[in-house]
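Exercise (ungraded).
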Amino acid sequence: MAEPSPAPTRSNEPASTKATYFWGNRTKSCLCLILLFAVLLGFYSSPEAHHVQGRRESLTLSEGDGHLDSCRIPEVPRLLYPKAQLLKPLRVDVLVMTPWFAPVVWDGTFDSALLDVQFRNTTIGLTVFAIKKYVVFLRLFLETAEKYFMVGHKVIYYVFTDRPADVPQIALQDGRQVVVLHVGNYRRWQDISMHRMEMISNFSRRRFLREVDYLVCLYVDMKFSDHVGVEILAPLFGTLHPGFYAADRQSFTYERRPLSRAYIPRDEGDFYYAGGFFGGSVPEVYRLTTACHQAMTADQAQGIEAVWHDESHLNRYLLSHKPSKVLSPEYLWDEQMLQRPPLLRKLRYVAVPMNHTEIRSR
Amino acid sequence: MHCLRLALGLGFCLLLGITLCSLWMYVENWLLVSYIPYYLPCPEILSQYPQPKLLEQKPTELLTLTPWLAPIVSEGTFNAELLHHIYQPLNLTIGLTAFAVGNRYTRFVQHFLESAERFFMQGYRVHYYIFTHDPQAIPQVPLGPGRRLSVIPVPGPSQWEEASMRRMEAISVHIAKRAHREVDYLFCLDVDMAFRNPWGPETLGDLVAAIHPDYFTVPRHQFPYERRPVSTAFVADGEGDFYYGRAVFGGRVARVYEFTRGCHMGILADKANGIMAACQEESHLNRRFLSHKPSKVLSPEYLWDDRKPQPPSLKLIRFSTLNKDTARLRS
C-alpha cells in the first residue's frame, strides 16, 4: 500500500499561507547565499583579480630563450647614451657570450644606466649566512654592500644567523632593510654550508616569493669593492670560480665519484661555478636550492659527501640547467690567493683575509 | 509556489552561469599564458661538445652583446647542435606569418614556402600563416611532417602603403583570435624574400628584432627614423641603438601580440593626426624597439639585401631579398 504523501496536513492549507511559509527564514538565507556567491564570483572574474593572478604568474613564468627576465618587457623612457657599434666588439680578449646565448658579464660589455632603467621597479633579496663566529664578517659585508650593491634599487638583506644579538646595526639607504632570520647551527662548517641550500629553499617558498623579485646568495666572508648592479640579474646566474676560469674541464674539481648525485664525468662541463655567488629569480633559485638539497640528502643516505659540498651540487645543477647569465671572476676574487690578470678590469666582490681554522672551530 | 520555485530555479541558473563564465575565463587565461621553462635543460645524451673557451684569442668581428646584454646572433656565436638538443625536447611550435596582399606579392609565396621548407626551423613543428586577399592564388606547396599552412583572408589593398600599415593590426588580431593557441613563438617575415641557409632555434627569444642591412655601418643620426615630433614614431637626434628592419621580427607569441598592438596604436594615433611616418610601419617598429628593447637581436645575416656585396663580417646569409629580376624570369 502506498505511503501517505509527506506532510499531508500542508496540502490542505490555503495557498497564501504556503506562500508565506515558503518565504520563511530558510529560503531567504538560501537566496541570500546564492546572491552572495554570484557577487563574489563576479568580482573574482573581474579584470583586477586577473591582474593579481597575472602578477603571481609572472613570477613563475620564465623565458624560453633564458635571457632578459621581465615578463613584461619594461618600457625604457628617453635616455641618452652612446650607440653600440656593430662592427666594434667591446671586449676581444674574453668570451662575452656562452654558446647557449648567456652573456658573460665583464666590465665594458654593458651600460649600467640603461640597465638601471630597465630594472627600476625591481626588488632584490640578498641572502647571507653568518653562523657562529662568522657574524664578525657582517659589519664589513653590509657596509660595503651599502656602498656598492644594487645602489638605487630596493634591497632586502636576509641575514641567517644563530646569534641575532650579534648582528650589527648598519646605517641603511632608503628602500633597503635588514631582515634577521634566526636559524639553528651545525657542528661542522661543511654542514652549515650544505644546509644553506635547505634554508634558502624553505624561505623562498615561505617568504621570498612574496617580498622580492630576485635573490642573490652570497658568502659572508667577503666584501664589495666595486659596483655590483642589475647587470647580474637573470632568471638564473652563476659566477665563474676565480681559480678555474682558464682551466680545462678535466681539471675542474667536480665530484668525480659516480655514486654521488653531484657526479660529472671528465668529458663534460662548461665552467666551474663558485658556490659563493649565485642567484636568479625567486622561483628558479627555489628550484635550484630544492634540487641541491634533495641531492645532498640522497648522498647522505648513501653515506657519501661531495668533494666540495654544496658547490659540487651547484655545479651539477648548472650543467643540466644552463644559467641565463654567467658572471666573470670580477664578481668573485681572492687577492691573497691569486695574481690579478689584466683581463680583470675591476674587482667587485673579494675575499676578506681570515684565519679559516680559527673561525671554523668552535 | 510555482512562481517561487521558478525564482529559485532562475537564481540557481544565474549562479551556474557565472561559475561557468569565470571558470572559462580562468582556463582561457591559463592557456594563453603557457609555461615554457626558462632554463635550458641539457639531456644526458649530449655530452660531447667542446668546452667554451673563456679567454678568447680570436677577435670576433661583430659585436655579440648589446649594451643591455641581449645577444646579437651571428654565425660562430652559438653551437647549433647544443641549441638543438636543448630546444628539441620542449616540443615547440613556431609560427611564421607572411603577407601576400596584392598581385605582385602572391607570386612570391611559392619560392618563399619552398625555401622555408628547406631551411626554416628544421625538425620543429611549424605553422605558416599566409595572409592574402586572394586565397586562390596561394599555390599548394608540399610540406614536411609536423608542418601546416593556413591561409588567412584579408581585404585587398588600395595602395601599397595602406597594406603595409594594416599588417600590425592583422597580426595582433590573428594572435588574439587563434595563433596564441596554436604556436609558442611567432616570426613575422616579408614574403618577397627567401631562406638561403638554416634558420634555427638560435633565433628564438622573448622579443626578437633584426638589424636592417642598409644601416648597420651607419651612425644613428643617419638612420631614417621619423624626425617630426608630432608623430608617435618620433625619435630624436642622439637616440637610437640599431636600425631594425620591418621584414623580420618575432618572439614569444604574447610579446609579439603586445608589440604589434603597440605599433598599431601608434599608427592609429598618427592617422588621427593626419600624418604618415617616413618609412611607414618600419618607423613605428623602430620607435617601439627603442623603448621596449628586444631580448635578442639578429645580425644582418638574418635580413640581407642580395644586391649588396656580402662583407667578410657576415659569414652566412640566411634570409635575403629575392632578386626581383629572377622572380620575373621564374614566373
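Further reading is listed at the end of the chapter. For now, observe: Chain A has a mean pLDDT of 83. Residues 67 and 324 of chain A are 6 Å apart (CA to CA).
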